[in-house]
Amino acid sequence: MKSIYVLSVVLAAVITTVGCSSTCGSNKTAGGDGSTSCATGNMKCPYCGMPKDQCKCLAMSKHMAEINTAALKALINSGVTLTLVDARTGKNDDGRRISNALNLSPEAKEEDIQALLKSKDALIVSYCANLKCPASRQLVVRLTALGYTHVLEYPQGIEGWVDAGNPVTQASK
């Protein structure tokens, strides 16, 4: 019960919501009519990768929740069960991880995601390199579209974590 209380207090205090900030449209949140800013123009959405008429950014119609460094640290230290997911891949992945983080690409196959993240009701925090890196947001959108219900983005990423003096581990190669 203490863990639930700590989680509630931490999340209520520091989670912020943001609208769809896709580069394929303006920074507008999806409208109540089911349309999204991502579904404009004749291009693919950078978050769901689909053509405009198949854009999956309807997952953005519910505001995306973010968590900051202090809140993430407090959440980890509280002992609340959560799954940290590093969304970096390829040359952007230097192997540094927040302790116990899993590695999962936003482009992973659905069956691979489901094998790694078994419960759709679990608390999941996605991060990547830094504020400029889109991978964590892409993964949050993807997971939300697949029905995961408690997904947060840590947009400061591994750089923000390290800059705040927090420890990292090195992924085995």
Feature tags:
two-stranded antiparallel sheet, alpha/beta, Oxidized Rhodanese, domain 1, six-stranded mixed sheet, 173 residues
Structure in words:
By secondary structure, the protein is of the alpha/beta class. It is globular. Helix content is about 30%, strand content about 15%. The longest helix has 13 residues, at about 1-15. The chain has a domain at about 65-170: Rhodanese-like domain (Oxidized Rhodanese, domain 1, 3-Layer(aba) Sandwich). It contains 5 helices and 8 strands; from the N terminus they run αββαβββαβαβαβ. The relative contact order is 0.17.
CATH architecture of the domain at 66-170, please? 3-Layer(aba) Sandwich
CATH class of the domain at 66-170: Alpha Beta
Total strands: 8
What's the assembly state of these chains?
Answer: single chain
Provide a short characterization of the protein structure.
The chain contains five helices and eight strands; from the N terminus they run H-E-E-H-E-E-E-H-E-H-E-H-E. With 173 residues, the chain is α/β, with parallel strands linked by helices. The radius of gyration is 16 Å and the shape is globular.
Topology diagram in text:
Blueprint: H1 2-14, E1 16-18, E2 64-66, H2 69-78, E3 83-86, E4 96-97, E5 102-103, H3 110-116, E6 123-127, H4 135-145, E7 150-154, H5 157-163, E8 169-170
